[in-house]
């Protein structure tokens, strides 16, 4: 079985519902995955927008999700450490928060939002508030697989 990431809120390549953006309640979408590679001990999630005017904008950094977690509920709380998710930690996004920050592009053409899930052979053991770059650096040599879900969003 291939390593796959999905959401029951939107399909790959589809529009992200307003609920998960700054134009709505701005809660994180539900995510679920299957087919994690053999030897997976932890997961990390990064959501970013490569179409942002000033370069890639980071919307969410989540790491040290235990291997027995195979989904994220809608509305992951804005807290540094998530006991309800096995002690997973949230990193700092480009809005300056240790939480999910939904799509909020300037008016115009749709932006693409990539939810990337990394299967790792060990927890990263970074403190809460790590940035995307910190997670990527700590993950080097530990990534067993990657799954991705892309949604689009535009504001009028």
Tally of strands: 9
| Largest sheet: spatial strand order | 6-7-4-3-8-9
Following the backbone from N to C, one meets helices and strands in this order, namely: EEEEEEEEHE
CATH structural class = Alpha Beta
Count, helices: 1
Described by strand count, sense and barrel closure, the largest sheet is:
6 strands, antiparallel
- Taken together, the total number of domains comes to 1
Low-confidence spans:
none
Q: CATH topology, which one? A: Phosphatidylethanolamine-binding Protein
Shape: globular
CATH homology-level superfamily: PEBP-like
Helix content: under 10%
Structure report:
A 6-stranded antiparallel β-sheet has the order 6-7-4-3-8-9, with helices on one face. A 3-stranded antiparallel β-sheet has the order 1-2-5, with no helix packed on it. The relative contact order is 0.26. The chain is mainly beta and 156 residues long. It has 1 helix and 9 strands; from the N terminus they run ββββββββαβ. The chain is globular and about 45 Å long. Helices cover 5% and strands 34% of the residues.
């Amino acid at each position: 079985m291939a390593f796959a990431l999905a959401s029951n809120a939107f399909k790959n390549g589809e529009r992200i519902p307003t609920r998960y953006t700054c134009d709505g309640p701005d809660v994180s979408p539900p995510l679920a995955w299957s087919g994690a590679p053999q030897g997976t001990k932890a997961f990390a999630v990064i959501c970013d927008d490569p179409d942002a005017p000033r370069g890639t904008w980071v919307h969410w950094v989540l790491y040290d999700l235990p291997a027995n977690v195979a989904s994220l509920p809608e509305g992951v709380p804005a807290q540094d450490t998530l006991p309800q998710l096995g002690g997973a930690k949230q990193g700092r996004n480009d809005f300056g928060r240790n939480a999910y920050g939904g799509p909020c592009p300037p008016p115009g053409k749709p932006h693409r939002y990539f939810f990337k899930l990394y299967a790792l052979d060990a927890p990263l053991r970074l403190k809460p508030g790590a940035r995307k770059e910190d997670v990527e650096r700590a993950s080097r040599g530990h990534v067993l697989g990657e799954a991705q879900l892309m949604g689009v969003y535009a504001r009028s």
